[in-house]
Amino acid sequence: MNIQRKYSLPNCTLLLEGLSDLSRAAHFQEMRPELSILVNVECYLSGYNQPLTGGREFFESLVRAVSGYAQEFLSSVPNPQAHNQESELVEFRKIDSNRHRLIIYSEGVPEGFDRSNNSKLPPVEIDLNTVQLFDLVEAVDQFFADTQTLPELSLQLQPVTRRYGGASQAVIRQAVPAAVGVSSLAVAAIAFNLIPPPQMRPPQPKPDEQTSSSTTNNITAPASAAATPTPTSTANRKPPVKDLEALLNTVPEITDPSQLRALNRQVYNQIHPAWNNRSGLQEDLIYRLGVAADGAIVGYKAVNKEANTEVGQTPLPNVLYNAASRLSISKEPIAQFRVVFTTKGVLEVSPWRGYARTPEVVGAKITDSNIVKGLNQKLYSTVRQTWSGTPTFTRDLKYRVAVNKDGVIADYEPLNQVAFDYFRETPLPKMFNAVYGSNVAAPNNKEPLAHFQVIFRPNGTLEVTPWQGYQ
After folding, report:
1. What is the pTM of this model?
2. DSSP states of 287-306 as a string?
């Protein structure tokens, strides 16, 4: 059976394809099949139409190079692991403080040949900005947190000794904002020997366990600060993580309707694009999710029997937040959601206990009627001019769209299911992507916004009105 694993960030996606080793898998039943034989790797980077592709040698070299370079970049201490052209397929070179060159040498060059003199197979060179670099770092982190993918690979983290560290706190402050995930902060910590190298691999769940959680009591670092794949044994793995049920009984619960509404969107946006195989379900799969205040999915539990046995048909194991890059959440508030993967291929996400009252939009708002009127007209003109093509939908698409004082789109949210299904037929994702470089970027809520309801009708009519609240 062909198995795929996908690790996605706004600016980087790693796609691993492979098979299970039947001789190892025959002795026990896995809820989620183990990818133990890597066949193909594809690395998609924002701004580039074609992915980087290769096999296992390419993947292991990429892991070593990006990990070594991340440590070098944050510590300003040279790391030969990132520049080993003689024995590695992948190399990194720093161009300036915000540009990094990724070099891939041909995987097909036989041993003993000088790659640099092989004119038939020139190296591939790609320039990354710092945000792209750290999204690649985070994607590698997600892989190493996934115990069901190449479990024999682990990491040996080598902290840079403080007395050799040439970077100042100013360098850290400059680098960290570009690193959009928690794991990148941990990379920085390892680079400056602020935390000890941890045991990276959490244990595999038992076949009869119905819960999965990314919680841990120890501060753990990401898997990408000097990566050297080496064999590992089950005996060296960490003890089992906490049960989701136990976690929910010991932490505060998020119940504010407005916060739940915002988190509901984040949960949907993580799961919906990652659910690739939507056919073949014999029964609805129902799960109870634990979600942190920042939107991270920290645990899930199967509600019905079919959900337990068919969890591999869902993206939940892949979207579970990286346990190796998150601090302890033992005191962190948790929101609960009901997630249903229906037999019709429709994803349903709702608060576990529903909304206690009608939620409101979170954040400061522009309320001056004259300004709102002007922004209403500007938004209508912008959307009308960029909406083209013949609609294929048969029902109204309803959205909440927020703009800043200059009329620049800051956020948009589908309000009905058909708006989720046909959002690509509207100009909204392109408008948002043009401003933030990604359609899955966090909404801009750092300044007052004006909110509107935008309706795309099947007959081509566009309607924009000031926001009156959720119905």
Report:
1. 0.47
2. EEEEEETTS-EEEEEESSHH
